[in-house]
Amino acid sequence: MTKTNRLVILRHGESDFNIENKFCGWHDAPLSEFGVQEALTVAIPALVQSELEFDVVYSSVLSRSRQTAELILSKLNCAYVPIKEDWRLCERHYGNLTGCRKRVVADRYGEEQVQAWRRGYDCVPPPIDEKNRYFYTICSNPIFDDVPRGEFPLAESLHMCVDRVKPVWKEVRREVFQGTRVLMCVHGTVARALVQHIEGISNEAIEKVNIPNCVPRVYEFDLKTGGLVGAAINLGDQEYIRRKTAQVAAIGD
């Protein structure tokens, strides 16, 4: 019988900035009340129904990622499971777009430009500068103390985020193939970066991938060959997932 192991990737619950439709990036926005409810009513029932258990959880150093992980572990009665925080799993840095409402930016620069900044593989937003109200809050936040000198970004493309995540994915991949049951509570762009690393899809294809909040995405690996067993499975109500995926893709109001 083929030995397999599963990896679960999950985007954190909605943050205050998600609710306000703002670019968030490296700003440490907490989960909103709705985001907490998403974790409790979307992620956890799907994980329980699938009888998934975990030995370790990966999160970023941003609170919305860590808080989602803690909520899930608490409700699964496995708060003892360690959480590995890594700054390289932080959301893509949206530069000077940080804190701006997406609709306002679209009205100013055009929807095509905003979608290029949001989805384009190599399109880098304008770098954050001192005039941005979140500049000093981000640059002086002690959660980023482990970021090596010279690697602290002022803006990132999707491609840059994919490259930043790659070493962490290699570490996770080794754990998965050793039989460790891993949950990754990450951010939208980081989840997309992981999808590209795992599925090997093209740069053009990953631009069109959208990850809804709190929907567990399950990958199963053949431990002998290292290959994927079937396609990724999104756990939960499929109509809800389709609706939320379309909502993520849109610029919104």
TrEMBL record:
Site (Transition state stabilizer) residue list: H187
GO molecular function: isomerase activity; phosphatase activity
Catalytic residues (UniProt): H12, E91
Keywords: Glycolysis, Isomerase
Chain residues that bind substrate: 11-18, 64, 91-94, 102, 118-119
GO biological process terms on file: glycolytic process
Gene name of the record: Pgaml
EC number, UniProt record: 5.4.2.11, 5.4.2.4
Catalytic activity line of the entry: (2R)-3-phospho-glyceroyl phosphate = (2R)-2,3-bisphosphoglycerate + H(+); (2R)-2-phosphoglycerate = (2R)-3-phosphoglycerate
UniProt feature coiled coil, ranges: none
Catalytic EC class: isomerase
Isomerase among keywords: yes
Protein name: Phosphoglycerate mutase
Family: Belongs to the phosphoglycerate mutase family. BPG-dependent PGAM subfamily.
Matching SMART domains: PGAM
Keyword Disulfide bond among record annotations: no
Higher taxonomy: Eukaryota, Metazoa, Ecdysozoa, Arthropoda, Hexapoda
